[in-house]
Automatic annotation (TrEMBL):
Residues 42-94 form the Lipopolysaccharide assembly protein A domain. The keyword Transmembrane helix applies. It comes from the Bacteria. The chain crosses the membrane at residues 46-68. This is Lipopolysaccharide assembly protein A domain-containing protein. GO terms for cellular component: plasma membrane. It comes from Primorskyibacter flagellatus. The keyword Signal does not apply. It holds the Pfam family LapA_dom. Residues 73-107 form a coiled coil. Keywords: Cell membrane, Coiled coil, Membrane, Transmembrane, Transmembrane helix.
C-alpha cells in the first residue's frame, strides 16, 4: 500500500511540474476592474507567473473548504463532547455506587465481584 501511495504522489508531482512549466508566463492580477479601480483610486496590481495563480487558487479553495467543513461539523463535535462528559460522570457515579455496595464486604469478595 505504501508503494501505491508513493507512486500516486510521484505521478501528482510530475503533473504539477508539467503544469508549472507549461504556464510560466506572467499575468497581471488586479484588485478591482479597471473602471472601478480608477473611480475608487485603488489601482493595485501584481505580476505573477500563471502557475502560481493556479496553485494559489487551488490552495485557497482547499483552505476555504476545510474551514467550511470544520464550521459545519461544530454541532457534531459539541454533541460528542457532551456525551463524553456524561459518560465520565456516569462512570464516576458507578464507581461510587459500587464502593457503597462493597463497603461491608471482604476485600477479596469485592475484587471478585468487580472482576465479573
Amino acid at each position: 500500500m505504501r508503494y501505491i501511495r508513493y507512486a500516486f504522489l510521484g505521478a501528482m508531482a510530475i503533473v504539477l511540474i508539467a503544469v508549472a512549466l507549461a504556464n510560466r508566463g506572467f499575468v497581471t492580477l488586479r484588485l478591482l476592474p479597471a473602471e472601478l479601480a480608477d473611480l475608487l483610486g485603488l489601482t493595485h496590481s501584481i505580476q505573477l507567473p500563471l502557475f502560481i495563480v493556479i496553485f494559489g487558487g487551488i490552495a485557497a479553495g482547499l483552505l476555504i473548504g476545510f474551514f467550511w467543513e470544520w464550521l459545519r461539523e461544530h454541532k457534531v463535535r459539541a454533541e460528542a463532547n457532551r456525551k463524553a462528559s456524561e459518560v465520565k460522570k456516569l462512570e464516576r457515579e458507578l464507581r461510587r455506587v459500587k464502593g457503597q455496595r462493597d463497603e461491608g464486604k471482604d476485600e477479596v469478595l469485592a475484587i471478585l465481584d468487580e472482576a465479573r
